[in-house]
Here is the input.
Amino acid sequence: MLNKIYDWVDERLDITPLWRDIADHEVPEHVNPAHHFSAFVYCFGGLTFFITVIQILSGMFLTMYYVPDIKNAWQSVFYLQNEVAFGQIIRGMHHWGASLVIVMMFLHTLRVFFQGAYKKPRELNWIVGVLIFFIVLGLGFTGYLLPWDMKALFATKVGLQIAESVPFIGTAIKTLLAGDPTIVGAQTLTRFFAIHVFFLPGALMGLLAAHFLMIRKQGISGPL
Amino acid sequence: MQRGKGMKFVGDSRIKTAEHRKPNIPKDYSEYPGKTEAFWPNFLLKEWMVGAVFLVGYLCLTVAHPSPLERIADPTDTAYIPLPDWYFLFLYQLLKYTYASGPYNVIGALVIPGLAFGALMLAPFIDRGPHRRPAKRPFAVGFMLLAIAAIFFLTWESASTHDWEAAKKQGEIVAESSVDKESEGYKVFNASGCISCHGAELTGGASAPTLLDTGLTPEEVAKIAKEGQGAMPAGMFKGSDEDLEKLAEFISNAKSE
Here is the structure.
């Protein structure tokens, strides 16, 4: 039955090459932890992606309850944390995932760096990777404000002060992020929400697509 | 891609008919060196096992340590000592050194992080030699080790000088009382001395029960205030009838969260 459906679609759209290309790519011996235990260092990138997927899914569930508004943001998080079934688990996964993704990404970066895997012809993929690093740090910074509790507000104030200290364009950057040159308030929360939920994830997905396409095109770097 | 004469298509689309198409069979890995294997399904299964083990650890962490939530943001609390999330601590700590803060703030906030992250981004163009082994690229590896050491040191310095006890206390969620202390009834409650036994939050104490959620009507409350009940002697309330009415109304409506 499933085969017939597959054949029916394949006859019309020729879908076989689309997925066989991914399915058939060869995994060399030196990156396979089943053959060399030390190859577990090649898992860091995949685990970073795994946590990223978890972050996207748990974040989608969080927005079912979260209200990006200074009167209700904290209340909605408190409700989610204490009243909603599994709310504590979903929020916990998003909270700890934010830290874990940075740890795994850091390890992945070090693996690529110390193996010199960024050398010709993989320079562009390294640059895209560093951009992904910045996007993830940005997600961490903007997400930290959203519960609208004391540490969120004051950590954000400090972060915005640092942004403001940039010469010439500091105030403009701060205004762009916070919605006002001096006040950290209602506008800041909605802007951080928009940046955290729409702008940065959009950029992240584009960069991840580029990252993976380049890996598929070039293959993984050879053994040292 | 095959193109040209003799090609048959499905209807008027660009899709080729089955005999001209890529067959749906795995390719032959025997040509590849060593123990090369297919991504699907051989290697992906192993990746899933690693992912599953990781996920178990991740969920244990989530269950063992519920994510923190401090009290609602209060911008007027100027005594609050801020601290960014742990992965920004090294940048934050950098701004506490003499030549990276105050008049030199630009150095700590822009120049040093800019150089470090700029060098990271442009690493392939700085470290241009043909060698990949760490031992053959002493400068690249040396600078990276230095940067890692600096990040660990700064994070450590920041975390060890922070007063975690005070930080925990300053952010604690304080249970809010639903008692309106501005109301006239509360003022009478305070002035008549009820407060000394029943407490400022009406929660009672060693010598008196709570006055929250009594379920009594104002008339019953007024009666008890005048005539006493249990350990409470008669004649405790000595104010005017007008005040008694306000007090009775207030206590009758007093409810916990």
